[in-house]
């Protein structure tokens, strides 16, 4: 059968232009063809094609050529070209796991020529070994057949070239002879690589950790030896016995982008032993036991039977909000206030008329007062009115001093953009001594409704953590929202930010910039803050640094500028779970009155956590610019592990009790100088919940 395939291949080559006469010639040939492979299909004039069938045929032709180019690049050991093709085409388009006419896959050629870089690139893309090689004998027989038939073809062509007189056919056969000689050398190199290979060494750095109350996770690295063939998969085995008899289960890991495996469905409180072995074309190597040798599925909450802090809170709040809405449906606050003083009644009715009047528009200039602006952005563009102004509406023209409590109330309202109409009905303008506060907040709700109506959208985004003020007495509350789709808005259009900034400079006063000028000058910083504050941490266990500072009317928390929705932090490990044994050890450490050497025994999960914590504390102190010797009195918060959605958890590092919160005017050495900012605590809490 193989001989017939080779004859068919020979016949096909006789009909084609001459093949490459040498490796260098072949390399030049497919590189010249590669320019054709990269043709953009959409650049063709569709009218020149007979129809959809012709276009599909043309597409398949290019994909076939790309598959041939990949085989050629692997055979010529051209790593750059292999990476280029893998990036340009998907595995399906390349037919990455479809054998060629010789029964080989690109990965087979790479591993049998022991080209580890190309083999790893193919494995990362999802390449597999040929399913034809079910045993060592079948692989060896297949290589011997290919080598024998290539040698036979070389001998036949050599005899023809020697015996025939020089002519066009002779020149053609000389080229074929050189190509077959090169292929013969390739098969010979592949066979030698296979014969000299040995089974792989055990994987290195096999580490076992507790992932939850019913699972454990094993991570590992490639074998340390570089002399064996490329490893193409791994096998994870687990048992309740250190001898692995009986075996409870096994799993094959053939996706090698990340070398780890989570064993699920285990029994809490039971010890499980795990070992990992590697596989190459010569078979499975010896297993490597994990460190520690076993793990017991558990969670830190099992130490004292503590329930999750947030269990049922969201449901309870939804139920409470529903009850409040039900009560307010029949409340007198929904009826017009007939007993209000004339001046106040006139003020409210004027605001309502302004809201619903057809001529309601955005403001062009600011007078002394409190205003709301909404920043909608997409890439480098920003939404502006038809007068090229950022959308601004007035909240209160008599309000020259924004109290922090009013601003924080506004930020909480931003979590309920869809409920503004209902909130307006609930916030009544009473005649009590608190009416000035209610007046301001009612006007805030009116301004929000007006902005929503003019833009034609309910969600105005996230409130920037501090208002913008100027010397003219203007106060600007800023909301930020990124638009990721081609969404249309009413009364506004998209304009490049740089163009808006340039036009604003020409009309503004550099000596005394208004709040709008300040906003435009710093708009990139605010957009960067908004984007960073929406970033999520990757799964894992983190060490956070809690540092507060107090002011007259608020408490602020220290956060990194690059991730302002999270405390200053470093990553301890990728596994977010703290096991019961680890938490028990941390509690023991926290209960010690005097610092003593408490390093746990080697090859235990506690010892591994101890080493991880040591490294994390040093990294965190360097990050916040605090000398390590000054952190000798710092302590770990031992009341609980902060859990965020099950995939991210935090241990907190605290300064000494008297220095956790710095008083106004107090010079504290535990506050870093640069790369950080302080947010109002309520703003930080809202950002964390988003």
From TrEMBL:
Q: Write out the ranges of the annotated region (Disordered).
A: 1-26
InterPro entries to which the protein is assigned, alphabetical: ANKFN1 (IPR039269), Ankyrin_rpt-contain_sf (IPR036770), FN3_dom (IPR003961), FN3_sf (IPR036116), Ig-like_fold (IPR013783)
Identify the residues that the record assigns to the Fibronectin type-III domain, covering every copy: 202-299
Gene Ontology biological-process entries: establishment of mitotic spindle orientation; regulation of establishment of bipolar cell polarity
Q: Which GO terms describe its cellular component?
A: spindle
Give the SUPFAM superfamilies listed for this entry. Ankyrin repeat, Fibronectin type III
Domain of life assignment: Eukaryota
- Report the protein name in the record: ANKF1 protein
According to its UniProt entry, this protein's organism is Asarcornis scutulata
What's the gene?
A: Ankfn1
